[in-house]
Amino acid sequence: MDQSDVQRRAIRLLVFSASLRRDSINTRLADLAATCLEAHGGTVDRASMGDFDCPSYNFDVQSDEGFPPGAEELRRRLEACDGFVVCSPEYNASLPGTLKNAIDWVSRYEPQPFNERHGLLVSASPSMVGGNRGLWALRVPFEHLGARIYPDMFSLAQAHRAFDSEGRMADPKLQERFDTNIVNFMDLVEASKHYPCIKRAWVEYLGERPEPALDRVE
Ligand SMILES: Cc1cc2nc3c(=O)[nH]c(=O)nc-3n(C[C@H](O)[C@H](O)[C@H](O)COP(=O)(O)O)c2cc1C
Q1: Are 152 and 184 in contact (CB under 8 A)?
Q2: Ligand 1, residues 17, 19, 49, 90: which to mutate, most atoms within 8 A of Cβ?
Q3: What is the pLDDT at residue 14?
């Protein structure tokens, strides 16, 4: 632990893999992220996508029955955290439908819990680009919802052979790069929580004429 960790003020991060698969490489990466966050003074809420599984979004279901337990759980755990880390597989050059569906449900809460919450996106894939296209797609709904998505996104290429028997990355330089990405993100979350900036409102479409019947402003 270096000097900056000793002085770190409290931050709490939700960490989950967006894969439901038993032997998921993204879940392995989420485990590594959680280990790194805790080693550098963060408090981690480690979740799984199964905790947030939701039926296909349907406005009528929302109106008639309310929110499903998976959406309630994601909202509750987001609100208890200063930021979140999502380890997401890439499906067909985009994000998995399960994750988008959960985001859609949670986006209907007011206040909307992604707004102003910091997020770090990471991915793992057997491919040469590590699922990075999926993260660019995932960035869009999050940014739309006012989440502060960290500029650097870590995508672990050829992930099926990237881990050693202890679950760390076999290449120590790559592991170090991953850890640095996580710690830089933590520094931003810490600064933002303890030295708040001036953003006051989340507005769905900033350039639209204000109209109470249509506004989604918080
Ligand atoms: C429906 C589907 C679509 C996929 N599309 C992509 C893709 O576009 N790019 C990619 O790198 N891998 C793709 N894959 C392969 C996944 O990266 C691979 O299955 C990976 O192990 C999934 O992550 P997980 O192990 O965390 O479940 C796809 C897999 C599935 C099941």
Answers
A1: yes
A2: 90
A3: 98
